[in-house]
Recover the amino acids of this structure.
């Protein structure tokens, strides 16, 4: 949610007042954009990594507060479930040896956190969805302590007016009824931040949207939920269903979900905040006393707290972020599509691919979003989540690729391409160009993008490894489902700590 919220239902502001405050925030944002009040370009990046907690046997450990007390670092904080924590990595300037610097920093921090967690009976696991998590764990008692989590839970359920229903059909089918939003806590993500100028925001956001399909196909790491094998990356469909504020009637009316890919390419960051105001009633209508226009008139910079809080309860896969640092406002694109893990080097490989490709696509003279219909970018996202590296993605391509499949626009040029082929032949060269433009050292560029290349060559990522090991344990050793998932999770934890990239992990 971006910040702590300490409020009970009796403290909630009148919704009409809150709506007026949101409009004032929007007006202030537009005024600051017109007056060029925002920070100058600094090529800053930042990461947040959500982590699972498990015991030595691989079972979920409901110990996040005890773990945080043991770690005793402000870089680590709670997440929605008692089996989650999150680590925030300080911003770094993109360029030079930043990827290797981050690898050393994150690896050192996570190894320290894992040692401290072990002192209270838990271990850190970087995985999209903990494979041993069961439906019996997704209960209200396992919601993290803190007023903000209980309030968010109550408001989502009140808006929906009925229990949550998960109905996910993948390799197998899962149907699960929940009386809370705790199933959402099964999702642990890697969040990639990039500070951008207002003039570049639309291009970077559009580029980030366009690449989420390839991004998910490469980084899928969440094939199991509550004992069922579902999508290669089950987090998106789980997230969409586990925090859906709409009963069936509102879905039928076309009301937009709060977990949202979007519906169009944008021309300005204000397009996204306007959509937030237009389409989504607030889940947390809490007001402060700031008058943003008066603050601006006095020469100050408003916090726009209502805008930020409202934005934090709308779960876009690429979220706009307004923030103020040292009295200077700035904008960020927050990419939220990827799962956590499997290893630190895999995480940095995913980051290298994202930052390189988003730069290259945003710099193109003929942008991909002028050639790829938005609906097909959204379809790519769901296709990649469901099928991972084995999917085919819509992409505008010339030559023999443009002739493949039905043309979407008159004149052709958009067709379905195997994801691995698309990455190897077109997107990896673009990502290299983008990292060069950021000034990343070639040794880091080649090392981390080489990991992405090998995933494609070997057709192996976190999701495919988990599935292969699970089926090997069942078919070869005859283990039942629960034992196979537990055995696979223990092996995952061991290999994760060794630190080699997942495409090198043996199945046996």
């Amino acid at each position: 949610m971006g910040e702590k919220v300490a409020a009970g239902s009796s403290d909630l502001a009148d919704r009409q007042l809150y709506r007026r405050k949101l409009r004032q925030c929007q007006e202030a944002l537009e005024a600051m954009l017109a007056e060029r009040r925002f920070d100058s370009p600094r090529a800053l990046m930042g990461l947040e990594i959500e982590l699972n907690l498990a015991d030595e046997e691989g079972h979920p450990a409901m110990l996040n507060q005890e773990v945080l007390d043991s770690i005793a670092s402000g870089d680590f904080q709670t997440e929605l479930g008692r089996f989650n924590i999150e680590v925030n990595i300080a911003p770094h300037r993109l360029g030079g040896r930043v990827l290797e610097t981050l690898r050393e920093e994150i690896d050192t921090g996570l190894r320290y956190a894992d040692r401290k967690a072990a002192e209270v009976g838990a271990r850190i696991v970087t995985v999209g969805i903990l494979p041993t998590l069961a439906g019996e764990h997704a209960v209200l008692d396992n919601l993290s302590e803190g007023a903000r989590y209980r309030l968010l839970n109550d408001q989502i359920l009140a808006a929906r007016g009925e229990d949550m229903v998960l109905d996910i059909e993948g390799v197998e089918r899962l149907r699960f009824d929940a009386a809370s939003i705790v199933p959402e806590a099964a999702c642990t993500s890697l969040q990639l931040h990039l500070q951008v100028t207002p003039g570049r925001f639309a291009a970077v956001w559009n580029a980030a949207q366009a690449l989420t399909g390839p991004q998910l196909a490469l980084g899928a790491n969440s094939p199991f939920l509550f004992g069922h094998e579902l999508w290669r990356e089950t987090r998106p469909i789980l997230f969409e269903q586990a925090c859906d504020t709409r009963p069936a009637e509102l879905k039928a009316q076309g009301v937009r979900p709060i977990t949202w890919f979007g519906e169009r390419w944008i021309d300005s960051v204000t397009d996204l905040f306007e959509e937030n105001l237009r389409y989504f009633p607030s889940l947390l209508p809490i007001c402060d006393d700031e008058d943003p226009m008066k603050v601006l008139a006095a020469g100050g910079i408003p916090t726009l707290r209502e805008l930020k809080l409202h934005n934090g309860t709308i779960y876009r896969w690429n979220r706009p972020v307004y923030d103020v640092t040292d009295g200077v406002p700035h904008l960020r694109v927050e990419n939220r599509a990827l799962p956590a893990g499997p290893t630190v080097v895999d995480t940095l490989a995913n980051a290298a691919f994202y930052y390189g490709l988003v730069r290259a696509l945003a710099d193109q003279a003929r942008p991909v979003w002028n050639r790829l219909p938005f609906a097909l970018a959204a379809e790519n996202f769901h296709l990649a989540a469901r099928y991972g590296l084995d999917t085919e993605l819509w992409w505008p391509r010339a030559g023999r690729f443009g002739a493949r499949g039905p043309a979407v626009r008159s004149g052709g040029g958009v067709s379905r391409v195997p994801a691995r082929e698309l990455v190897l032949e077109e997107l990896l060269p673009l990502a290299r160009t983008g990292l060069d433009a950021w000034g990343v050292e070639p040794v880091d560029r080649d090392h981390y993008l080489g990991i992405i290349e090998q995933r494609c060559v070997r057709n192996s990522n976190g999701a495919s490894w988990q599935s292969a090991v699970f089926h090997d344990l069942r078919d070869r050793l005859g283990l039942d489902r629960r034992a196979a998932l537990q055995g696979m999770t223990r092996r995952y934890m061991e290999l994760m700590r060794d630190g080699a990239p997942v495409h090198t992990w043996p199945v046996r």
About this structure: Residues 399 and 478 are 49 Å apart (CA to CA). The longest helix spans residues 198-219.
